[in-house]
What does this fold into?
Amino acid sequence: MNVHSTSPQFKQNAARALHDVQLQKALNNVKQGFIDKRQAAADKLPEFEALRDSARDIKNHTLEHLDLYLEAYEEKVKASGGHVHFARNAEEAREIILNICRDSGAKTVTKGKSMISEEIGINHYLEANGIRPVETDLGEYIIQLRNELPSHIIAPAVHLNATQVEQDFRRVHTHLDAKRDLSEPVQLLTEARAVLRERFLAADVGITGANFLVAETGTSIIVTNEGNGDLTQILPKTHIVLASIEKLVPTLDDVSQLLRVLARSATGQEMSVYTTFSTGPRRASDADGPENYHVVLIDNGRSSMLGTSFEEMLRCIRCGACMNHCPVYHAVGGHAYGWVYPGPMGAVLTPSLIGVDKAGHLPNASTFCGRCESVCPVRIPLPKLMRHWREREFERHLTPASVRSGLGLWGFFARRPALYRLATRAAMATLGFAGRQRGRFTWLPFSKGWTKYRDFPAPQGETFQARWQRERKGRTA
Amino acid sequence: MSARDEIFANIRRSLGVKGSETIRKQIVQDRLERSPKGVIPARGQVSGEERIALFKTMAEASLATVTEVSSTADVPQSIALFLRDHNLPATLRMGDDPRLKSMPWGDTTLEIAHGPSEGSDLNAVSHAFGGVAETGTLAMISGHENPSTLNFLPDNHIIVVSAKDIASDYESVWGRVRFAFGKGSMPRTVNWITGPSRSGDIEQTLLLGAHGPRRLHVVVVRE
It folds into this structure.
């Protein structure tokens, strides 16, 4: 079983989020920061659009030959002295990880940021089995203290303000002076650095994710700005890499193409601070590094997405640009989506992984403005894929009866153009007449969902089609 | 059926392939052997002084500091000066890189320690395998010469790079790695470093020195 989801309650989640003052304040940071930074980085690189095409093509090529690249990768990892484990689902992955930790006699485990580790819910599982997992990415550390899921895939604590972080640090770091000054964000960072430095040095096992896996060399790659992923993997005796199977790319040249679009799309950096290429365990020529190197390759629903219209989603490199540019994400934040992956990419991926019956609201929570697709570094047609989910939801009779009967009624008229024109003309004339005084309606039958929040503008009395006909006639005459 | 076999069977069923098709195997083999280059930005495709200048500009844009010295003999003095200017203690940890070892550290008052870091060092120096002008990135290779812990544990990390090792693009560095380690092989770790450690996790405010070095200082050796 995957980590628990509240996606079925999306509507309630969203309503709560809209009224959460702290959250709304924090979400302003997303709107202001990420968009401009990405644009500036893209503008500075004339080849950016060509690199996006290249990135898309590399991922498509790899997915079409995924079985063969996985075999090549596995062989290379083994040749470099590492171990490869395969997990069909979250349970198997957790079991494999626990066994490796037990074999290493692990008491504490440090963790780099990894979305797949959230997906399989590894932290609670390790805790339940007497092993203490410590998140080391600053944002992940903060949300671990709060027992929350990340609200953003690259900025997990973006929903919080500094005062909330201060409260959490005071609550948890009780060994420190209660009167210490934590009024500046840098003081919070310094405190976390000192607390986590001890954890890094004490950990028995380090778990990281992987942004990419390279078939050519059997290499796993992590990309961070903090350096926490590196301390997680070079200090303990054992390094475990968790990766879903679609992280593969063929060669070092291919991954360099993807790295050129990743940071620019994510944070607007030319390159992230630390890009780390790891191949196997410590060697005779090494003075440091892990003695054991394990890779856990996790399917958890991916292989079934291949060959379907949702295969395109497997190109995703988890940069977060789609949510950074999404008006729905800006309004409700990441937690409202109710599972691990928020925003447009979550709206497409979540139904694939936990079922459209549970996550059907997510692809509906879109204005279809298309900004997500326009910034996606691997050009995933996110709006199209959300529409596919809506169609499937409809086909499987998961949409509410009122929506279905409304769509049915509309479909009846739409298939009969003459009747459609007659009906809309009558309706618009009536509404135009009724609203001629105020120019708007504060109430209309069957339209509470609209008029509860805003007025409905009164039609002019003429339909669009009628006006089109009239003006076209005027032009040709 | 083992998890491995079932995952491969699922992938092949979804893709509508057997896995034994000669043409597919050939395509994959070919790509792994030829490793075709993709789109290489024109920005880095400059040479000589222009390339060093670009590297410097980009490294500084990533909030690293950069000094140039004319020969390896000048490196210790330059580093001693950097530490003094920032009111840092005159201590320095390094691996046993022969290029670093042969430098005249005795000309300075620096207290030198050797080997990997245990987590309490304030300053460390490493020698880079190469640099990338395109983004001001340094490429580090693990080993007793330059232990990986030195890249991350000290507060102040100094990286020495030879001007001749500063390449236009990442692909050129991979070319050198392949030449040194063999095509298809890698050192245990390659670290690309672009600036000092940072985090934006608190209110999207950029703060330096999250878990890794608070300062990254680069010494470019021109000889």
The CA atoms of residues 48 and 457 of chain A lie 42 Å apart. The mean pLDDT of chain A is 94. Chain A has two domains: 21-303, 418-476.
